[in-house]
Amino acid sequence: MVAVRDGVVIRAPKQQAATLQINTRNEHIRFRYMHMNPATLDADGILNGRSVGEGDKIGVVSNYLNHPNGTSRHLHFDVQVFTRDGWLWVNPYTTLVSAYERLIHGRGHEIGPDSTSSPAMARATPASEDTLRYDTQEGSDN
């Protein structure tokens, strides 16, 4: 997993979740990543107060949920924004759409049965061969 934005990590040792907080004059938002391997997060120094930049690695998709092999391999990702009423949960889908639009350098458009034009296609090439490898034992030895 990579940081969706520049921010500061909120996470204590041994926790399987990491929160990325953005707290600027104009924006207060939290992104939470869950079900990651705590030992890997600890070893990588993903702990309270660490500053990360957009795109920096912050974790590895795992199957961890308080015990080894606790869930299927997936990421639980959620978003909170700060309002005058406190922190509110928001749907992260728009964040995903925005990321894809940045990737294709343009606006996306809805695809459906009434669509008459072909959708824009974006292709991303991994930066290195390492991005194609994964550890089949991730989360199984904690």
Care to describe what's here?
The protein is of the alpha+beta class. It contains two helices and six strands. The protein has helices at residues 38-43, 93-104; strands spanning 7-10, 18-23, 28-34, 51-52, 76-83, 86-90. A six-stranded antiparallel sheet has the order 4-1-2-3-5-6, with no helix packed on it. Strand 1 and strand 2 form a beta hairpin. The protein starts with 6 loop residues before the first strand and ends in a 38-residue tail after the last helix. 14% of the residues are buried.
Task: Spell out the blueprint of helices and strands.
Blueprint (H helix, E strand, L loop, with lengths): L6 E4 L7 E6 L4 E7 L3 H6 L7 E2 L23 E8 L2 E5 L2 H12 L38
Antiparallel strand pairs: 1-2, 1-4, 2-3, 3-5, 5-6
Please describe the structure with a list of short key phrases separated by commas or semicolons.
six-stranded antiparallel beta sheet, 142 residues, alpha+beta, 6 strands
Q: Which regions contain 5 or more consecutive residues with pLDDT less than 50?
A: 121-142
Task: Give the overall pLDDT as a whole number.
Answer: 79
Helix content bin: 10-25%
Structural class by SSE content: alpha+beta
- Tally of contiguous helical segments: 2
The largest sheet is: 6 strands, antiparallel
What's the end-to-end separation, in Å?
19 Å
Q: Tell me, what's the shape? A: globular
Beta strand count: 6
Q: Roughly what fraction of the amino acids lie in strands?
A: 15-25%
Instruction: Write the element-wise H/E pattern from the N-terminal end onward.
Output: EEEHEEEH
Strand order of the largest sheet: 4-1-2-3-5-6
Question: What's the gyration radius in Å?
Answer: 17 Å
